[in-house]
Amino acid sequence: MTYIAALRRKNPLVICLTNDVVKNFTANGLLAIGASPAMSSCIEDLRDLLPYAQALLVNIGTVNPELGAFYKQAVTLANELAVPVVLDPVACSAGAFRREIALDLLVNHKITLLRGNAGEIAALVQAKHELDSKNATESITSVNHKSEKVAEVSSKGVDSAGVAKPGALAEQCAKAFQVLTVVTGPVDGISNGLKTVEVTNGSAMMPLVVGTGCLLGGFLAAFIGSKELQRLEEYDLFSATLWGLTAYSVAAEMAAETCENLYQRVEPGSFQIEFLNALYRMSDEDVKTRKNWHMTFNREQLGVYFICGTQDFKETDNSETAALRCIEMALQAGITMFQLREKGVGSLKGAAKVSFAKKVQELCETYQVPFIMNDDMDLAEELDADGVHIGQDDDPIELVRQRFPNKIIGLSIHSPEEYADSQVELADYIGVGPVYGTQSKGDAKAPIGPEGIQAVRNVDAEIPIVAIGGITVETTATIREHGADGVSIISAITKANDVAKVVKGFKKF
Ligand SMILES: Cc1ncc(COP(=O)(O)OP(=O)(O)O)c(N)n1
Ligand SMILES: Cc1ncsc1CCOP(=O)(O)O
Ligand SMILES: [Mg+2]
């Protein structure tokens, strides 16, 4: 990724409608990273400026009735001009007036990115549920309302103690409002409802410097709005936001280290200065080498789950190059999960396997697709894979769950009997099969057919199931009708003449 370099080339104009406490810090932070900040406080002025802007930040931190009306006009204008909008619903958990303003902007306008702490985001999700249930009871036709529990978080004013699973909260919010959401706290979460990543970079000093949360809204606006970034082949809204969010947290780490080196301690005053310096100094390389991401699981990721290793390309001149090329094409075409299954005749071993696995992991990270390791728990730990897949003859699931409390764990299941004998509650998903005959696994059990998938679904209506074994685009509809959330595939993709076409075929279901 070269998002920071592109941002600096373009120097994007970010218009900030932000609160009185943080205007100066926001302007300095944006300048330091290479963006061009402008503050504005009336619609007449905004009509002149916004056509030249690459993004608009609306931060409701010191809102009053006049400003509330101004923010509404501003977002309407930005929507007309197709300028991306970042909304920071500061302290909306603390009062109904703020919450209603934020809710109105989210429900009745187009917000590109919502950024808040856990308390703020939870309050908005709760308010949206209440709004939906009010609309449902008012509507004569609507009979079926499902209410969800919102993650419990403590909140006081603009501070928030955080939430155990910021990724899950971001995902809930992204689904409720159909908006890309960033939840910040000790661990940050980002979700568009389909992909969710938690970022564990950062510094404990950040909450002690006022404005670090507010500056992030403007900072992310610079990343998502810049036309220069949007021209990059790697650009998409999710990945640009994730890169910006990580860059920000990495800058905080760098600032804390500088304070340690200079003063042998980290204190708020010196941290604030060193944080601005770090934003000015940092590069894409710093983000690449320090990023600490964790993909969280949701059942939609089972949709098109590609599995392979170099042994699946043994007919080619260079199986490693062919595998990497195929994996990248499959990622580009939209696979939703990837498993490295390097095993069997012709597979890589030792250092060659580690080096190949690292390259594959990097590709998966570029496309924010979970990287799952088959069988090899030590390598999963060494590379910090997003998850592992184990079968009935691999390490016992209770030991694997103990070792990896936060990783995605998949478990192979062949029949309802095997389901009953397994601790499936420790798994995030189960891989059920083989559905049909397969050439890709020498010791595969007998095929169970789509009915075998249905048999397991009948004993557990909820568990995420991915089907496996001899699956093609043509058989996918039937398999999904029999209860699978998705399909996992080796040969239909590795042997495809047109990988993108086949992956897109699988994605239609
Ligand atoms: C998604 C998925 N389902 C099943 C398997 C098979 O795992 P296992 O039974 O351990 O066999 P090997 O793949 O290790 O040979 C899988 N890998 N992925
Ligand atoms: C790993 C595995 N487990 C059961 S079948 C199978 C192989 C699936 O490969 P293919 O999609 O080529 O049949
Ligand atoms: Mg196995």
TrEMBL record:
Q: Which ranges carry the Thiamine phosphate synthase/TenI domain?
A: 304-493
Q: Which reaction does it catalyse?
A: 2-(2-carboxy-4-methylthiazol-5-yl)ethyl phosphate + 4-amino-2-methyl-5-(diphosphooxymethyl)pyrimidine + 2 H(+) = thiamine phosphate + CO2 + diphosphate; 2-[(2R,5Z)-2-carboxy-4-methylthiazol-5(2H)-ylidene]ethyl phosphate + 4-amino-2-methyl-5-(diphosphooxymethyl)pyrimidine + 2 H(+) = thiamine phosphate + CO2 + diphosphate; 4-methyl-5-(2-phosphooxyethyl)-thiazole + 4-amino-2-methyl-5-(diphosphooxymethyl)pyrimidine + H(+) = thiamine phosphate + diphosphate; 5-(2-hydroxyethyl)-4-methylthiazole + ATP = 4-methyl-5-(2-phosphooxyethyl)-thiazole + ADP + H(+)
Binding residues for ATP = R115, T184
Signal sequence span per UniProt? none
Write out the pathway annotation from the protein's UniProt entry: Cofactor biosynthesis; thiamine diphosphate biosynthesis; 4-methyl-5-(2-phosphoethyl)-thiazole from 5-(2-hydroxyethyl)-4-methylthiazole: step 1/1; Cofactor biosynthesis; thiamine diphosphate biosynthesis; thiamine phosphate from 4-amino-2-methyl-5-diphosphomethylpyrimidine and 4-methyl-5-(2-phosphoethyl)-thiazole: step 1/1
One cellular component term from this protein's GO annotations in UniProt: cytoplasm
Gene Ontology terms describing biological process: thiamine biosynthetic process; thiamine diphosphate biosynthetic process
Keyword terms of this UniProt record: ATP-binding, Kinase, Magnesium, Metal-binding, Nucleotide-binding, Thiamine biosynthesis, Transferase
Q: Which domain of life is it from?
A: Bacteria
Q: What is this protein called?
A: Multifunctional fusion protein
Origin species = Veillonella criceti
The record lists the lineage as: Bacteria, Bacillati, Bacillota, Negativicutes, Veillonellales
